[in-house]
From TrEMBL:
<dbReference type="InterPro" id="IPR036719">
    <property type="entry name" value="Neuro-gated_channel_TM_sf"/>
</dbReference>
<dbReference type="GO" id="GO:0004888">
    <property type="term" value="F:transmembrane signaling receptor activity"/>
</dbReference>
<feature type="transmembrane region" description="Helical">
    <location>
        <begin position="360"/>
        <end position="380"/>
    </location>
</feature>
<dbReference type="InterPro" id="IPR018000">
    <property type="entry name" value="Neurotransmitter_ion_chnl_CS"/>
</dbReference>
<feature type="transmembrane region" description="Helical">
    <location>
        <begin position="226"/>
        <end position="248"/>
    </location>
</feature>
<keyword id="KW-0732">Signal</keyword>
<dbReference type="InterPro" id="IPR036734">
    <property type="entry name" value="Neur_chan_lig-bd_sf"/>
</dbReference>
<keyword id="KW-0675">Receptor</keyword>
<feature type="transmembrane region" description="Helical">
    <location>
        <begin position="163"/>
        <end position="188"/>
    </location>
</feature>
<feature type="domain" description="Neurotransmitter-gated ion-channel ligand-binding">
    <location>
        <begin position="3"/>
        <end position="162"/>
    </location>
</feature>
<feature type="transmembrane region" description="Helical">
    <location>
        <begin position="194"/>
        <end position="214"/>
    </location>
</feature>
<dbReference type="InterPro" id="IPR038050">
    <property type="entry name" value="Neuro_actylchol_rec"/>
</dbReference>
<dbReference type="Pfam" id="PF02931">
    <property type="entry name" value="Neur_chan_LBD"/>
</dbReference>
<feature type="domain" description="Neurotransmitter-gated ion-channel transmembrane">
    <location>
        <begin position="171"/>
        <end position="256"/>
    </location>
</feature>
<keyword id="KW-1003">Cell membrane</keyword>
<comment type="similarity">
    <text>Belongs to the ligand-gated ion channel (TC 1.A.9) family.</text>
</comment>
<dbReference type="InterPro" id="IPR006202">
    <property type="entry name" value="Neur_chan_lig-bd"/>
</dbReference>
Amino acid sequence: MFQSYSMQVYFRQRWKDDRLSFYLPNITSFTLSNKFINNIWKPNSYFINGRRSKQHNLTVPNAFIRLRYDGSIYMSVRLTVNARCPMVLSRYPMDRVVCPLYIGSFGYTTRDLVYRWENQVDIDPGVTLSQFELGRIEQQHITRKGRYGDLSILQVYIHMSRAVGFFIIQTYVPCYLIVCLSWVSFWINRDGAQARVVLGVTTILTTSAIGITVREGLPRVPYPTALDVFLIMCIVYQMAAFIEYAAVNYFTKLMPLEGGADDDDDEADNLIKPGSKLKLVSVEEEKPEQECQTLIHSYARRLEEKYTQKWAAKIQNCSDFLYTFLQCIVGSADYRQQRTELADPEAGNSVSAIDMVSRVVFPVTFGLVNLCYWLIYFHLDMS
């Protein structure tokens, strides 16, 4: 329902034509056939801002005509009316809508007839709308200048407020969760570039997809709606989280690798200095059988030591894993303190100061911006 609305109404009119007065004993009124309406004078009432209307004919024409002895005619018709309703969607989906319905005569001026409200416009208490809540109804009578004289017009204003609960469930809550998900990157190691990039791109694309889906049902208005502002705000924070990692990667100094194979190479290089002389002391001559036996024993000993160390390492790793897992499940404060003391604060995988600040700055500022967002649009809605 945008820029137009549809409703089903019982359109009742009453007018008096002295030419149809009669006198019959014990009869004050009687019902006429629907065909009779084509043979009498009618006010030619129509809906001025209507786009189209339809009279119900199930299972017979839903029309009722009664004639009284003094010439008064009462006519009731069941119609479905589709009328124009100008909407300003700048506060969508927290907007209030006032849909008018104008009733006038097609061809007659105030010299011929004048419209008046006889009773208040009533709405069935059981009527509910999926996206709106019905408010008050105003009805007026005005006179408007026409080309051939003054025109008598009846006005009805139906006040409605949009039910924002649907949009909170379908749009606001998912976007809030996606923004919070983008902040998980602040707790991912800064060396995990792939994980942080994938998380940032995924959250941005998901929010963009939600925005495109929401805009599909809206008319193409040239101004941003309240929902557009919210989606842009979410995307900005997700982009900021993405850029934050770029800043972490840029301002973080590359840490030197710990001593390893290079140190061994340096030590090996230092064993022989340039210009030093090597002296061959002696060479023992071994028999082929003795040499082969020595090699076999040496290889067997190395193989045994290798597998012994391998299984010992596996058992130790399994034991360490079970111990670590148990401490994490229990939530041991002593274990956490021990890990903190053993950690090298200057190691390459330490937590970035930018990440630590972002863990606080992003949620706090996002909460403040959202508070301002809801207060501003709530105030506009009330005003």
